[in-house]
Write a structure and sequence with these properties.
6-stranded antiparallel β-barrel, 32 strands
Length: 473
């Protein structure tokens, strides 16, 4: 992996002296298969072929027109060309400080993606340095971005502070599980987003305080090829379903919490797609990227996919009613079990419909049924109210009664983007995804789904009229 930092700061590999460019504006990462990813971390944004990718990542190709702050173009001549794995290498082992490296080293002098060990089909070993502070072989610094031949037993030192442990370098074929876990955990964590809640009218809070709840979802990812489940991926490991299927029983599921609200008397609940089915949402998990990485690893070990895919398997899905307690001896005692009913088919609509197993809304709840007919009922600068669970259980349980209590707050509409989305100016954090957004009349105008962690006040909701498409099934 080659990581190129770009910005105005002197610590960047590509320095751009322009006042509109942020100190650490963007990053280009190039993996060992030649795939290039651009990540924007700026205030003024980055465009790729005219498309703004502000505070997000996208795949790019050499020659794409990339503008930083919509002013300064990327000079591709400053971006090194990596040696691509064209099938000649049997093993590729990444080394660095980041958690998605196969060998992770903990030292401030070592780069996030410091170097790569490559082993070809004949057993020859090479090291490729991609760092700031260098890689040394038998005391001499090797050239950057070059496959330098080494022998087992050579003294290989990273930044002259950490020596390579040759015991970590495989001599023959290796189980793909060796690679899968750090990659998947990085994608999952790399795929973590932050959300928020805001409210305005006290009457709205009193009317709907029992109509919302904290959504809990635990699940696994399953890698399937030719109808055979080969791997189960959890929060703490990977189970090889062919060679050691019993590992699945001890695998910890991946957990996510969000917000949701009742919309009918028979227990129907609206939340976000990335809460109820994270593997079907680009906001939460890039399942295609996980599948691609596993296929690459299998190919390096002589295995080739026939018809592979990554799917989600729900372990537990439910809603904790607002005001309910969390029993430490039985955390799910007061959770009401749910089933996933339907997801919005449009990519732009981060909406999901789930339903209580009992098919009956609790008696103290007032379902949210006063839904606007269209975006023409929304105006800039309208005051809005949001009810939900920012920071999940951490904030929800922060009260003397140890009960799950929602946050009620307010803001104003700052932008009506299109037929799908509005923007408002209240802080947003993880856990608030799926919160109802009301106007001062108590009408549901949107479902909160995203916010910018690094630029608070830029938060987004799906216009509520689209809920009807989920209810009509």
């Amino acid at each position: 992996m080659i990581l190129i930092t770009i910005g105005r700061g002197s610590n960047n590999q590509i320095i751009i002296n322009n006042a509109h460019v942020s100190g650490n504006h963007a990053e280009l990462s190039i993996d060992d298969f030649g795939n290039i990813t651009l990540t924007d971390r700026s205030q003024n944004g980055t465009t790729v072929n005219g498309r703004n990718i502000h505070n997000s990542s996208t795949s790019v190709k050499r020659g794409d027109r990339i503008l930083f702050a919509n002013i300064v173009p990327l000079d591709w001549n400053q971006v090194p060309i990596s040696s691509v794995n064209n099938g000649n290498f049997k093993h590729i082992i990444t080394i660095g400080k980041n958690t998605d490296n196969i060998i992770q080293v903990y030292n401030d002098n070592i780069s996030r993606y410091h170097a790569t060990i490559k082993i070809d089909k004949k057993g020859n070993v090479f090291i490729n340095d991609q760092s700031s502070n260098g890689t040394f072989v038998n005391g001499s610094r090797v050239s950057k971005y070059t496959d330098f031949p080494v022998k087992r037993g050579d003294k290989v030192s990273f930044a002259n502070v950490q020596d390579l442990d040759w015991k970590q370098i495989p001599k023959a074929g290796i189980n793909p599980i060796y690679y899968i876990l750090p990659i998947c955990l990085a994608i999952l964590s790399g795929a973590t987003y932050y959300f928020k809640e805001y409210f305005v009218n006290t009457d709205v809070s009193k009317k709907y305080e029992n109509s919302i709840g904290l959504i809990y979802n635990s699940y696994y990812l399953a890698y399937i090829d030719n109808k055979d489940t080969l791997y189960y991926i959890g929060a703490d490991g990977v189970a090889d379903m062919i060679n050691n299927p019993t590992l699945k029983e001890s695998l910890k599921p991946i957990e996510i919490t969000g917000s949701g609200f009742y919309v009918s008397e028979d227990g129907k609940i609206i939340t976000n797609k990335h809460v109820a089915s994270p593997w079907e949402s680009d906001l939460a998990i890039d399942k295609e990227e996980i599948e691609k990485r596993i296929n690459m690893i299998r190919a390096m070990n002589g295995e080739f996919s026939v018809n592979s895919k990554v799917v989600g398997v729900i372990a537990k899905l439910g809603i904790f009613p607002n005001g309910s307690s969390l029993d430490k001896s039985d955390p799910f005692k007061n959770m009401l079990p749910c089933k996933l009913v339907k997801l919005a088919s449009e990519k732009e609509m981060d909406l999901a419909l789930i339903q209580l197993d009992t098919k009956k809304t609790p008696s103290n709840c007032t379902p949210v049924t006063n839904i606007i007919k269209g975006k023409e009922q929304i105006s800039l600068d309208d005051e809005v109210s949001i009810f939900g669970y920012p920071f999940g259980l951490d904030l929800a349980l922060k009260n003397s009664e140890s009960r799950i209590k929602a946050t009620f707050d307010h803001g104003k509409i700052s932008k009506i983007s299109d037929t799908y989305e509005i923007q408002y100016n209240a802080p947003s954090f993880h856990g608030a995804s799926g919160s109802p957004v009301f106007n001062q009349k108590g009408e549901l105008i949107a479902v909160n789904y995203a916010g910018m962690e690094k630029a608070q006040g830029y938060n987004f909701g799906i216009i509520a009229t689209h809920i009807n498409k989920l209810l009509d099934f």
